[in-house]
């Protein structure tokens, strides 16, 4: 079985749709879902009772979507925040979200985690060191 390729702004990700898991987004139950592959979908799209994947927009390197709650209030969310909220739970106040591979558009659950600010900074330093080493060779 071939895997379809999804291209994002900065990276190409191979996506196995059979392994995609969808969960409701807290506060938007029955309206939106997010997948472990970093996709966000609207439910009951145009009353067809069908999942419609939203097209994210880039902002400062991150991918964002706008969600509307039952009270018709709209809020923008970074997709990585929604993935972790649905699959891991709310972010503890003393932690930040980390893209493990440093690619801000790679919002797969396997690439996201909560870490301390100092751990996030160390990860960034390690990544930048590896990049500089590669460029100098």
TrEMBL record:
Residues 79-122 form the HNH nuclease domain. Residues 20-68 form the NUMOD4 domain. GO terms for molecular function: hydrolase activity, acting on ester bonds. It holds the Pfam family HNH_3. It comes from the Bacteria. Gene3D superfamilies: 3.90.75.20. This is HNH nuclease domain-containing protein.
